[in-house]
Amino acid sequence: MSEANMKKSILRAYAPASIGNVSLGFDLLGAALKPIDGSLLGDEVDIEIAEQFSLVVTGRFADKLPPDPDSNIVTRCYQHFIAVLEQQGHAKSAIPLLKMTLHKHLPIGSGLGSSASSIVAALHGLNQFFAEYFGKIPFTENELLLIMGELEGQISGSVHYDNVAPCFLGGLTLMAEHKEQVALQLPMFENWYWVSCYSGMNVSTAAARNILPKQVSMSNTIQFGRQLAVFIDALYRKDEKLAAAMMLDVIAEPYRKSLLPRFDESRAFAEQHGAIAFGISGSGPTVFAVCDNIENAKIINQWLTYNYIQNDTGFSHICQLDTSGASISHS
Asked: Which keywords has UniProt assigned to this entry (predicted)?
């Protein structure tokens, strides 16, 4: 795209919601979500050339963010990205100033990777924008993931990739955290439906981590390792029954469920009505139920809507995995 056309156009980046941990993979597994009804479940960031940098925040959950744009993670993404461009040898005078607009569709502290979605949309959008502007992409996929994890750590207090990786890459991802390969994409069952229900409450990642014990027993450590290994093996062998049987959280759920009203009741209903797995999405309060048919998913989705949601900001969606991850469009 020519520079003249870029000055007239708006680039939009979209990044989907995600499930961190996926029950059995604490900090190691993540899954991107896509509602089957076509509704939007993720943040968007618009980028366009401007006279000076600015950030505008809109969307259903915009009022839950700090009013000062300088404290917004999208501004930090922009500042970090520009600093690295300058380190790469781009003259400051040659880098255009931008107007960025964050469409905040995901609730904060929901367990749906809200901060990760904003970070991924911002950085993926900037990477694509400057690839078109300079004719060369600034960062490889893996380099960009490392930056995403670093910025996510500024929000949560520690670097982890189980939300940014699936949000960016799509599908189900396993964190390798190797400098040359941050995350690996795993095969998944296309007939699985993921009912994802946000109660409307907020649970901060830091608070959810503080409730966990500082040490894990030997028996739980062995069980955690066994479950994760068997689960991944079952995915590659297409053994749905065994994979689902491994989706139990022995690390975080026994402690975090105390933060989530009606969790045990919700799990019991889901399992009695055909869910093959049930767990906490990330740090909560969102929960998810996995079903291998749409009929059971509809029953569980309806029950959670009326019984797990606590206020009018809550919602529930029947999803499948978003295999595309972050995407770009122009207008």
From this structure: Amino-acid biosynthesis, ATP-binding, Cytoplasm, Kinase, Nucleotide-binding, Threonine biosynthesis, Transferase
Name the CATH topology of 3-187.
Answer: Ribosomal Protein S5; domain 2 (3.30.230)
Those residues whose C-beta lies under 8 Å from the C-beta of residue 102, and which sit 6 or more positions away, are: 43, 44, 45, 55, 56, 57, 58, 59, 62, 72, 74, 118, 121, 122
> Would the pTM of this model clear 0.70, i.e. be above it?
yes
107 is in an annotated binding site: yes
CA separation for the pair 54, 36 (Å, rounded): 35
266 labeled binding residue: no
Residue 331 annotated as part of some ligand binding site: no
33 labeled binding residue: no
Does the annotation flag 187 for ligand binding? no
- Sequence-ordered list of residues with C-beta below 8 angstroms from that of 44, at least 6 positions apart, any chain: 12, 13, 14, 15, 102, 103, 105, 121
* 316 marked as binding residue: no
Position 168 scores a pLDDT of 98
pLDDT at 8: 67
13 is in an annotated binding site: no
Question: Does the annotation place 270 within a ligand binding site?
Answer: no
pLDDT of res. 153: 83
- Ranges of the chain with pLDDT below 70: 1-8, 156-157
Structural fold of domain 193-321: Alpha-Beta Plaits (3.30.70)
